[in-house]
Structures are given as structure tokens and as C-alpha cells.
Amino acid sequence: MFSKKVQSYVKQIIVEQEKIQQDEKVFCQQAEIAPLMIWMSGCNALYCYFNSNWLKFTGTHLKTAVSASAREEEIGNIWTGSVHPEDRQRCEDIYLRAFATHNSFQRQYRLRGSDGEYRWILDTAAPRFAADGSFVGYIGYCVDLTEVPIGISQPSITESCSLSTNFSRRIRKITEEQLQAEITKRQAVESQLRQKTSEFAAILQVLPDSYFRLDADGSILDYKQGLIESLYIPPGDCQGKSLRECLPTAVGDRFHQAINQVLETQHEVSFAYTLPLPAENNNFEARLLPLPDQQIIVLIRDTSDNIQAALIESDANFRSIVENANNIIFALTLEGIFSYVSPNWTEIFGHEVAEVEGKSFIPFIHPDDVHICADYFQRILTTGKKQEAIEYRVKHKNGNWRWHTSNSSAIKDANGNVLYFVGICYDTTNRKEAEIALRESAQREALLNRLSNQIRASLDLNHIVETAVQEIHNLFQIDRCAFLWYRQDTDVPYWEKVYEAKSSFLPCLQNQQEATHAEIKLIAAKTLNGEIIRIDDTETVGDSIAQQFLQDFGFTAFMSLPVHTQSGEIGAFSCGYCSGFRPWLNNEVELLQAVTVQLAIAIDQAKLYTQSRITAQTAQDKAQQLEAALLELQQTQTQLIQTEKMSSLGQLVAGIAHEINNPVNFIYGNISHASEYTKDLLHLVELYQQSYCPPTPEINQQINTVDLDFLKQDLPKILESMKMGAERIRQIVLSLRNFSRLDEDGTKAVDIHQGMDSALLLLQNRLKAKPGHPEIQVIRDYGNLPPVVCHAGQMNQVFMNLLANAIDALEELYAAERRSRSVSKSCAYVNSHTLRKGEAFMSLVNNTEQRTNDQGQMTSPQIRIRSLIQEDHVIIRITDNGPGMSEEVRKRLFDPFFTTKPVGKGTGMGLSISYQIIVQKHGGKIQCISAPGEGAEFVVMIPLKQEPST
């Protein structure tokens, strides 16, 4: 009986569909000859038809030989792709709002023509209703308004509607006369079909059987799974397949026989069969009934008893889950109407379920988020696929907005048509508020860093204050922000406004008279005491004078933070709000405190910079006044510079040596004791290891953690390395003291070689090999000299100047060699002072034997120092195998300010000072022997004996 009713409904539906298809053809023929662009949409808000005039106007060509679903998707996207992007969102909003009210509407937009140009269109639409009054969609027609003279380039919808009323009426009359009859007839047929379809769908919803509709070949045209969990026919993926192929061979053959029997007899055929399932074998009953057009209905029922019990249990479990879930579960019709919400809606949003079900979702959603939800459901409807979750705000019954995240999907029938939406949403307000707070905190932190960098990078006081005021005004979105200085060096102290940032509608305070201390006694007193003023509402201020002062300036909320600089100046950073009550947040106060601290530091820096600029300008003015006199006294000043330089250098070097010597002696004196203590401790550890073996787990773990074996080996090495470093520092300190000789006044008997070695030690870094040139080797050929009476510090400076010049010459030679890519003959030249046969000297740098050729000549960059006694004079010769110099250069070598070095590398004073020290201070001689390509030799000669000064 039940299967007969299903068969009857299917037959009636097929007949009604054939009528609709015939009426569809007639309607389309009428629409094609209408002089308008006509479109239609279904109740799901998807466009389903455009007539030929619309397609021709837009230059759109529909694809042929595509599936029905592909054709629907193609038609649904045509309108969106043809409308101007700037008009699309506005028109879609009008379109979607109309679907919520089922009212007629008009919209005006630019539509792209077949030539690619956009033309203004007036689109008028009316709702379509079935015979039973149910809403089935919209039908609309479009009119080109581009050439209609309405006085403006882009008319608004209101203006265009009022100006084109007569034209629109004429078009509507033509359209209604031509199409109304066909529309009425189509609606009646659609109503009958919809009635039959809904009744059939209702039957299938409660039908426990699996339902198939097959063609004559046994291919599946339609399928509903029912309550049977089939392991052979996957739902949604069986249309077009043969039922015989989806089942085991024996069962498939039986179905094939039954299909042929039904087609031949046009009578019902029934049979029973068994299918192996994972748990057990289940028994099934199949009924096959004939349909028109060689189609067959197949109903399959599970005759086992466990399905009904499982269904009841599943329904109870599902209901329990829904009613006890923390998240809201809802169902939404294609028109956006809530058909179901879970009971916890009342607990979360405050509305009773009856107040929600049957209502549109739009009133519950924040106006700014409605389009997000509408677009979301439209994408689900268009694609038929689940989309990524969306976030939106839902209104609580108490008026508050709560953030929610929702996931939804479409429920489809057996043919793939979307029936309704189901979704689940959960409250994310706490997370959203945390994100907002975190974002605001990050913004404030970024502001503080940016502000700190800006005010620290600038030394302009006005720019610093302006930057701070503007940044705070923009961040806090307050009406007025200002910085004031407290001027107390006058008869009547007052507050001077330096800079302010304000809203455009407020008057400027800087043009008004400064406020005196008495006018704002309460505020001033707190600022001078370093207290923060924080007033959320000026009406609550107890001091009437202060309250009147704030209200005179229009403040309804006020905050001020003091700024005290190291120079004693006092300022105030004030923030005002003029639009009612405003609570000042703690994080805002903390941020302003940090800004005022940075501001005070920056102000101090700016003032110091200003003072230094004034001082520098004063010094520069004095230097310009003395410039002429200094030029006239060059010769005299050479000696003065020498004296001052040696005095300053000596004080500096001696001071450094003295300061370093004490801690180094402390370190050096204690390293030996530390080494002994370390040995004793390590020995004690070994005794512990021998006596307490195996160790406890904690001790064993610590031994592995610190790698005790490695520590015992490496610690003595570290102490020994420290001892070597301390010894090296002691040598450097001794060299510095010997070089400066600050502790010796006048002439004393000293070891000349010791001063030379000190100078070499200080220049050791320049002697080492570097990228681009090899090591400079120093050969010390010292004679047996007795102590020489001289100015030791000044003689050390002479040695330093001569050695530094020799190093410069050798470095320049190898630099030129790299540039020319060939070794100059002069590089291999060795002066006439060659080593004696079998004689070898050691390098100062690495203590290796010098490299010489077969004739004993030097073949690498080298400096040779020789000392000897000739009669009653001491002679020191400093020789290098550098490029040498011309006779013209050699003659001017000891002139003040003469130099052959690049600008910035030499002053031309070194050799001039050395000449004065040797000749004038010691009564000796200094000369240079050199020629181009033959190196250079400086010969210093001073008396062996002089009267020591006391």
C-alpha cells in the first residue's frame, strides 16, 4: 500500500514536471520576444534565467553541452561578473534585504555592455508567489537609462526613479500584458508540482526504506538512503551508476531479472535477499514498481529488528547532545529564517526559543556584520560545500553585543538540491576582547618605542614636545592635549603653553592669556609636588576655583602628569576631554608616565646640546680671531705643540699604566695561589671519588652535567692562560711607563735599547701580517751601550716617529705593488748594509730567522735597527727597504708641516719635532740617507755624556 502511494506520487510529479517544462518553453519564447532585458531568480536568491536581450546587451554567451548543475552555476554568476565593482555590494544588499521582506524593489547600477563600456541601468523587480501564496522568487526587467537626461553624471536611485516614472510605467505595462498570462499559468503548474513534491519529500523523510529511481538500463537516476546503512552504495556518489554494479554479483543479477520483469509486465515485482554486513547478515526486501518513460521505482527495506531500536537510541542520544551542548545549534531556511535553535540559546542570548524560531537572522546580527553572514550562506548555497568559519556579533537581549564564531553547511536532498542550512556557533567574546586588549597594548608599546626613538633622535626641544603631544592626542583620541612650562622666574608665576593638539571644532588655547599659579592653585600644587592629576568628571572636583578653571576651558574630563627635568625646570603634560564623562584607564596613565620620563630625558639632552653648541660657537669665534696670529707663529708653536703633546701623552700613558698596574699586580699575585688552591680542590675531589664510590645518583648526574673530567683538565690550563695574559699586561704596562718616563724629570742616564723596545712593543700590531701585505720583520742589531744621559721620554718619541714612518713607507710600497700587479725592482732591493755571512737575526714579531738571499740581502719588508758608540757619541741607525725618496723630498724632510702622506694621514710635524729634540734638546744630529728605489736610513747621533739635571 505504501509503495503504491510512492509510485502514484512519482508518476504525478513526472507529469507535472513535463507540464512545467512545456510551459517553461512557452514562457521563454514570450520573454525572448519582449523588448526588455528580463531576469528571474528562485527563492534561494540565485539567478536562474536571463533572456536573450539581457545576454545580447552584456555580450554573454552561455556554454553548450554542459551539465544542469554547471549551467545553474554559470547563470548564477553572470550578474555578478557584469555589474560595475563599485555598485555590486550596494545592489546585492538591496537584493538580499528584499528577500527578507518579499517586497518589490528598484536598484540602479552600471552594467557592462558587449562593447566593454558601462551603462546606467534601472532594474525593477517584483516578487513571484505560488497559487498557495508561498514565495518562489523574483522576476525583473532592466531599462537602459544612460541616454535619459537627468542632469547629473551618476544619478541616485531616488532621483532616477522619480525622473523615469512615466517611462518605467510604459515598459511595465508592455511587460505585464505580454507575460502575465504565461506567468499565471506557470505559477499554477509550479504550485501543483510543489505541492506534490513537498508531499513526496515528506513521505520520503518518514519512509524507512531506501529509495531508488532507475532507467530501463538499471542506472540510478535518484537515490535516498533511508535508514539502511549501506556498505555497497555510497550516498551522493551513485547517480549514473548501474545498481547491478553496486551490489554483490548474485544480488545484482537478481535485481537485473526483476527490472526486466517489471518493464515487460508493468506490474510490481517483490523479492527478498540477504547481504553480508560487518556485524551480521541482514535480511532485506526489495519492491520494484513501474513508472512512465520506462523508469522504475525500487524500495528496499531492512527486515531486521535492530534498525528501529538503533534509530530510537540514536534520536535520544542526539537530542541529549543538543540540549546539553555549550554551543548553539541552529537550522536556517534558504530565506534566512530560523527553523530551529537549540534550547541553550535562552541561556546564552536571553531570548526564548519561541522568540527566535520563525524569525529572520538579520535582526539578531550586528548591522556591520549582516553582509558577512549573507555572503557566507550565499557561498555555501553556490558551491554546496562547507566554508571556513566566520566571526560576527550577535545581540543579547540586554542590548550587549557578543562575538560568535560559526560553522555551517548545507543539507541537500537526493538530487543535490539544498534544502536548508545547519550550523553550530560558539561564544568567542572573551578571546576577542583579549585580542583587542593585546592589540591595543601592542599599539601603545609601539607608540612608546616610536616616541622614545623620535624624541631621543632629535635635539630640537620644540620638535620633541610637538612629537609627544601629537602622538598622545592621536592615540588616546582626546579633544585636547598640551604641554606647559611653569615659569617661576617672574613676579607672578604662570603656566606657559608651549604646544597643543586639539580637535578642529575647539578654539586654540595658545592664543589665550597664560593661566597664573593662583588661578589653578590646586592643579599647580599637585604638579609641583610631582603628583598625577586624574579627573574622570570635572563635576566631581571639590575645589571651586579649579573646577571653574577647567570648565572655562571646556574640559569635562582632565588628566595631567608632571615633568621634572634634571636642570630644575617643571612642566606638565595635560590631556583634556570635552564631550562628557571619560574614565582614564590605568594603562593610559602608565603609558603617559613612561612618555613623561622619556620626555624629561630628551629635554635634558636637548638643553645640554644647546649649551654645547653655544660653547662650541664661542670657541670657534675665538679660534677665528686667533687664526692670523697662529699662522705667524708656526715655528714657535711647533715647539709648544711638542711640549704640550709630550706632557699630555706622558700623563695619559702614565695614568693608564698606573691604573692598570695595580689590578694587574693583584691578579698576577693571586693566580699562583688560585692555581695551588685549584690543585688542592681537584685532588680533594679525586679522594672523594676514590673513597665514596659509587657516588649517589644526584652526584653522578652533576658530574655528568659539568663534565668533571674535562673540567679537571681544562681548569689548570685556563689559570695558566690567565697567568700568561697577566704577564703580558705587565710587560705592556712596563713598556708604557718606560715610553712616557713621566716619573723622571729632566735628563737622566737611561737604557736607550729599553726605550726602543718599548716603542716597538707599542707598534707591534702594525708589524704583523695583514690581508694584502706580509709581516714586517724587525732586525735588532744592538751594540753594547752604557746608560745614556738624555731626555728619555722625548727620545722615545723620536724613535716612535722614525719607526712609524718606516712602517708607513713599507705599507705604501706593497699597496702600490698590488695595484700594479707586478713586483717593483725596488722591492727586492737591499741597501748597502747587508748581513755578514753566517749571521742571522730573530724577528721581533714571531721570533723566526729572517729571510735573506744568497748574498745576505733582505728579501721581505724589514726594518733594521743598529746602535753603536763612535768616539763620544751614540749612533742609532734605523733602516727600511721601502721605496725611498727623491732628493727634493729629502731636503725638505725636517721642515714643519711638510708631508708626502695623503690628507688626513700625516700632519708633517713628526720629523720636525724629532729634529728639534735631537738638535736643540740634546745637541746632536739627525740625517736621512735615501734615494728612489733604495730604501731609507735615518741616522741619529747624540752625545754620550751630558750633565744630568736634578
Would you write up a description of this structure?
By secondary structure, the chain is α+β, with helices and mostly antiparallel strands. It is 48% helix and 20% strand. The chain contains 25 helices and 28 strands. The protein has a 6-stranded antiparallel beta sheet with strand order 18-17-16-21-20-19, with helices on both faces. Helix 1 runs antiparallel to helix 6 (165-206) and helix 14 packs antiparallel against helix 17 (586-632). The chain is elongated, with a radius of gyration of 51 Å.
What's the quaternary structure here? single chain
Uncertain spans, ≥5 residues at pLDDT below 50? 150-168, 822-852
Apparent shape: elongated
Biggest sheet architecture: 6 strands, antiparallel
Strand order of the largest sheet: 18-17-16-21-20-19
Give the N-terminus to C-terminus distance in angstroms. 142 Å
Number of strands: 28
Bin the helical content.
Answer: 40-55%
